Amino acid sequence: MSVEVLDAATIFNFVEDEEAFNVSICDRFANLDTDHDGLLSYAEMLKELQSLRVFETHFGIDVKPDPGELAHVYDSLFMQFDHDSNGTVDLEEFKGETKEMMLAMANGMGFLPVQMVLEEDSFLKKAVDRESITTRVTTI
């Protein structure tokens, strides 16, 4: 994990950079698709859903949620990705929903910088890394 400063523009620019965004999406999808069938089952998606950390923490300490409530939240999130309700998520569904979630997050952040703790392989960390590289290249 690392502490990073980002704003909505960091996320918007990452999503709009089709090459960087698609590479990240395809890599994450391939890592989640453990049986290599080109589809993500609920079990395969569960790790990704858990990484979203949808529950509050109190002063940085996780609060233990009710297991039933947690299962309901993960079921609902999976259904949001599974656009055609066939019980699996294909690459296009994964890409589309991830993009929507990232844009919603950016819209909610505004343009003031925010300091966040990010997992090293998260999409937000990839957005920050992309911005760092882009900034370095343009200043050289």
Description:
This protein is an alpha+beta fold. It is 61% helix and 13% strand. The mean pLDDT is 87.
Question: What's this model, at a glance?
Answer:
GO terms for molecular function: calcium ion binding. This protein has six helices and six strands.
If strands are numbered along the chain, what order do they take across the biggest sheet? Answer: 1-6
Euclidean distance between termini CA atoms? 28 Å
Regions with little confidence, pLDDT below 50 for 5+ residues = none
- The fraction of residues assigned to DSSP E strands is 5-15%
User: What is the typical, i.e. mean, pLDDT?
Assistant: 87
Total number of β-strand segments? 6
Characterize the biggest β-sheet.
2 strands, antiparallel
Put simply, the count of helices is 6
- Supply the helix-strand structural class: alpha+beta
What's the alpha carbon Rg, rounded to whole Å? 16 Å
Helix content: 55-70%
Shape, per Cα inertia axes = globular
**Could you state the order of secondary-structure elements as H and E?**
EHHEHEEHEHEH
GO molecular function: calcium ion binding
Keywords: Calcium
Domain EF-hand: 69-104
Protein name: EF-hand domain-containing protein
Topology:
Elements: E1 2-6, H1 8-16, H2 18-32, E2 39-40, H3 42-51, E3 57-58, E4 61-62, H4 67-81, E5 89-90, H5 91-109, E6 114-118, H6 123-139
Antiparallel strand pairs: 1-6, 2-5, 3-4
Helix pairs in contact: 1-5, 1-6, 2-5, 3-4
GO molecular function: calcium ion binding
Domain EF-hand: 69-104
Pfam families: EF-hand_7
